[in-house]
Design goal:
alpha/beta, 9-stranded mixed sheet, 9 strands, 31% helix, 13% strand
């Protein structure tokens, strides 16, 4: 055995002799194959050095259907892998225009996070958390005999909008194009509401930006009700460095960017449940005010109570079109441990659901919603966060059914 080993070593030593070796100086001077003029700068040659996404113009948005399991209707843990066992519809296809009124759509995206990743699995996790919901058992004790799955609105699961995991800017454009395609569809019941509305499951909070961009052509500026422990209006120079277009857009700056693009109401946006750290004693809050936001901090609920919180929101928003954005970290970690940037001292799930129902009862005109930042890998065996996600989406669905909305007149 030893003699064979030594023979092999000797043979390998003759493959490249000292005279055959290429000096490092010659290696350094060699040009890139296939392009003698190509820059040796990595950034200039990489995807990070380009901001052009025009290559997407010829591509149709792609929908990924939820996983299908053996269809058995008798048990909540079996059947289709859609949200609450709803029918699946490819909502981007023109042939499906006029077949639904409200869609549940997933954005499996988490390229904008600053701490714990994994929210790309949120849409699947939320659907798993909704296994016990179904149209056949859609009534409950809190909504006066209304089953939101079987009222005037046809509700469907639109699946997930496909987006690349390799390029954040391209992915954001893919999400926007997919949402625009769905928003262009005609609703089934035009006499009740003349536009389809969507509840989006994230995904990290960056997805709010492409969603509001897609809504703008239909609804114009919207008042954002932002349930979140964080502000998410940070100037990119404060969060992300502001060095490149790639770093400017993330889950803590997207509302700043939306304001700069003229997508938000001038002064009717609100943060609800806020309790985050700040990078500056004054700059962050001053910039937040400049972006048109006021806030109700998490601890204020103890003094105000649910009814006063709802009253303040309704008075502040008035008759404007509302976009609802719920970061699951608005809840205390006891009720939602599975999120990326967790903060103690949040609201209970009961308090959050009561506030959302109060806004519904007040008749605020909701045109779209997202529930984001669910990272299933951090959930517990009881699926506490996933079930909370499903309950929030169910409450938002009740709101949309209770308050049909018509597009603004030209």
């Amino acid at each position: 055995m030893h003699s064979i080993l030594f023979s092999l070593l000797a043979l390998s030593g003759t493959v490249v002799s000292q005279s055959d070796k290429i000096p490092f100086s010659e290696l350094d001077s060699q040009q890139v194959l296939g392009n003698a003029r190509k820059s040796s700068n990595f950034i200039a040659n990489s995807i990070f050095g380009r901001n052009d996404v025009r290559a997407l113009d010829h591509r149709e948005p792609k929908i990924i259907a939820p996983t299908f399991l053996t269809p058995v209707d008798d048990f909540g843990y079996s059947g289709l892998g859609t949200f609450a066992h709803l029918d699946f519809t490819d909502c981007t296809k023109s042939e499906n225009s006029g077949t639904f009124d409200i869609g549940i759509v997933g954005h499996p995206f988490d390229l904008g996070v600053s701490y714990r990743p994994g929210a790309r699995f949120g849409p699947n996790g939320a659907r798993q958390g909704a296994r016990r919901l179904s149209p056949a058992a859609g009534w409950d004790m809190d909504h006066g005999g209304i089953n939101p799955f079987r009222d005037w609105a046809v509700v469907t699961d639109c699946g997930d909008i496909s987006n690349t995991p390799f390029d954040k800017l391209v992915a954001i454009h893919e999400l926007e194009r997919g949402m625009k395609k769905i928003n262009e569809q005609e609703p089934k019941n035009k006499t009740a509401a003349d536009a389809v509305r969507l509840i989006t499951i994230g995904g990290d909070h960056t997805i709010t930006l492409p969603i509001i961009r897609a809504l703008h052509s239909t609804w114009g500026k919207v008042a954002v009700l932002h349930f979140d422990s964080h502000l998410d209006t940070w100037d990119p120079k404060q969060l992300g460095g502001g060095l490149t277009k790639y770093s400017e857009v993330n889950h803590g700056t997207m509302l700043h960017v939306a304001h700069e693009e003229g997508l938000l109401s001038n002064n009717s946006n609100m943060h609800l449940g806020s309790r985050c750290a700040l990078f500056s004693a004054h700059f962050d809050l001053n910039n937040d005010l400049r972006c048109g936001f006021s806030y109700i901090r998490a601890r204020e609920l103890d003094k105000l109570g649910v009814e006063k919180v709802v009253e303040k929101i309704v008075k502040h928003v008035g008759d404007q079109y509302v976009y609802l954005s719920v970061d699951i970290d608005v809840l205390d970690p006891a009720f939602a441990p599975a999120t990326g940037t967790i903060e103690p001292g949040g609201w209970t799930s009961r308090e959050l659901l009561a506030i959302i129902k109060g806004l519904s009862d007040a008749g605020l005109k909701i045109v779209g919603a997202d529930v984001v930042e669910f990272t299933p890998v951090y959930d517990n065996a009881a699926e506490t966060t996933g079930i909370a996600m499903s309950g929030i989406i169910y409450e938002i669905l009740h709101w949309m059914v209770r308050v049909p909305v018509s597009k603004p007149k030209a």
